Amino acid sequence: MSDCTDAAIQATCNDASVCKKYAVDKGYWMDRFISYMVPGRIQRKQPEISRGYYARTNSIWLLLKRFLTRCSCTCQIVSLGAGLDTTYWRLGSENMLPIRYIEVDFLDVVVRKIRCISAKVPLHSCLSDFSTQDDESCLHCGSYHLVSADMRNLGELEEKLKQSGIDYSVPTLFLTECVLIYMSPEKSNAIIQWVAEKFSDAAFINYEQIHMNDTFGQVMISNLKVQQ
Ligand SMILES: C[S@@+](CC[C@H](N)C(=O)[O-])C[C@H]1O[C@@H](n2cnc3c(N)ncnc32)[C@H](O)[C@@H]1O
């Protein structure tokens, strides 16, 4: 799917959060923050979709909490291609925040998320030192950092992580939830290799679409192409 336009790739964060909100509303898991990221009514989804999102969200959640527990929260989490994800707020409500939580996405997605956070008290009241943003291209509030980068450009990604105070010596968990598939294998390999070389203690959670040549995968690819 690396040949889809950037606009179509950015739009995938809507689908992810809309499907998560639908599943949350149906009681698959608890997330009292997602409705602030995705306001309004949502069209009915097939139960298979909600079950798939439950497996995806819950498996990542369990791994994240295991990592945080092992490090006694003295660690960093870097969510690459975070979209409108609410994991930071969910961890905060369980008193399980790491010392640094960095989210990275394309500029348009970051601007949209910052506007959403700024407009919704339940979101920004969880961030320390939050003040109304003049610069909508990044947000640095206590342990929370939201920055923009095209991650196919490793130099840009590294610079934005530096601006967020990344510490290469602290245990760091990288999360890519349905993200790497939108770039070429060379570009995603470069990110993984950079993490392996740069960090003394790093872990990687990657949750990805597979079997893109079966009927389901082909329908997904053609839907993305229609959005271009
Ligand atoms: C399917 S969404 C997943 C969002 C989030 N991880 C989740 O599961 O809710 C993919 C996200 O990856 C981001 N993304 C894909 N390629 C990217 C790139 N080269 N640079 C920055 N962000 C990228 C998209 O903008 C989008 O927000």
From TrEMBL:
UniProt keyword terms in alphabetical order: Methyltransferase, S-adenosyl-L-methionine, Transferase
Pfam families the UniProt entry points to: LCM
Gene3D superfamilies, per the entry: Vaccinia Virus protein VP39
The enzyme's E.C. designation: 2.1.1.233
Enzyme class, first EC level, given as a word: transferase
Reactions accelerated catalytically: [phosphatase 2A protein]-C-terminal L-leucine + S-adenosyl-L-methionine = [phosphatase 2A protein]-C-terminal L-leucine methyl ester + S-adenosyl-L-homocysteine
Function: Methylates the carboxyl group of the C-terminal leucine residue of protein phosphatase 2A catalytic subunits to form alpha-leucine ester residues.
Family listed: Belongs to the methyltransferase superfamily. LCMT family.
Protein name per UniProt: [phosphatase 2A protein]-leucine-carboxy methyltransferase
Annotated source species: Clavelina lepadiformis (Light-bulb sea squirt)
